[in-house]
Amino acid sequence: MRVFDAARLVDGRRDEALDDARLVVDDDGTVAAAGPREGVDAPPEADRVEFPESTVVPGFVDAHVHLQGARSMDVADWTTTPDSLAAARATADLRSLARAGFTSVRDLGSTVGPGLREAVREGEVTGPRVFTSGRAISQTGGHGDVHGLPHEWVADGTPLSTLADGTDECRREARKRVRDGVDCLKIMTTGGVLSERDAPDSRQFTDDEIRAMTREADRAGVQTAAHAQGTAGIEAALRNGVSTVEHGFYLDGDCIDLLKECGGTFVPTLSIMYRITERGDEYGVPEWGLEKAREAREAHVEAVERAYEANAAVAAGTDFMGPELVPHGENALEMELLVEEIGFSEMDALQAGTRVAARTLPRNDVGTLTEGARADFAVLGGDPLADISAVRRVEETYVDGQRMDA
Ligand SMILES: [Zn+2]
Question: What is the C-alpha separation between 195 and 369, in angstroms, rounded?
Fold first, then answer.
């Protein structure tokens, strides 16, 4: 048993931090107790660790990353990088995530995600728990296609996505992912910013195609995430069984009602939009991508404000993938942007990056530090409730009560 005493603790569930707090972790890596120090006994035989100036928070969860070790913003480059190199780079990305306080990530489009997940489980690679969709599923000419390359080069898919058209192919692709043991499906129901010849508000996949994929996900007991930016594509996704809306630039009031009705989660990925519009031109984002991002930016911020006001579940996810513009290790930016751009309270932003983000994962014992949960936590220098930038001052990261050596 281990006992951690901290200046303050946020458990991810309560709406207030606990001062002079104590966290007790069982030998099996679960939380035995968390509360004010005077109310929680420390067993005399337990190891003691003290963080007299620091805040303990649940380990951060990034609900939308790509673990394909990208090192540029060039989609053709992502397509031609060998998987062996991608995997090696992605292991470095996992270490960066661990150092930044992340204890779980949801990978929504990669070839190497499933292998990384196993290597982390085995303890061969240091990093957060990996949950992965494997490669996303896109229609031909859709967001997951690479429009500037000859079709025959990408007909069998790219490292981030495969192509499917018609309900039979969609069902088969979904079944292939289930066969690979994925934690969720990822489908593209609209165009996007970094796909050359479509637009964020163009709809992709028919209702029948979407339903063919979500049915397979349901039968396998996993959720479906939809890359969905325009209103029509968001609505189609939600009406046809999708659980998480990624990006949601034009999420309107009706979409929010639908999202709440189906118990879904909105993952806005403000971070990548912020980085692309602020500095994308310096890092090789093509002009057509910059233009689309700039055009959507204001509506996107308003959509997140609308969702926050309506009390919808908004989860922190960055869409970071590894290049200098959107590097792993700076993923806590999303919580800062929720406060600074949208007006989230600091506590709501912390919950978006922990408990709410964990709603997108296929397990219910991560994202909080309540009794019985996994003892995944970050130790922050400073008080994130007084100044949200403390989420960047990570001193140590623990998974299952053990310090990650990253
Ligand atoms: Zn993405």
Answer: 40
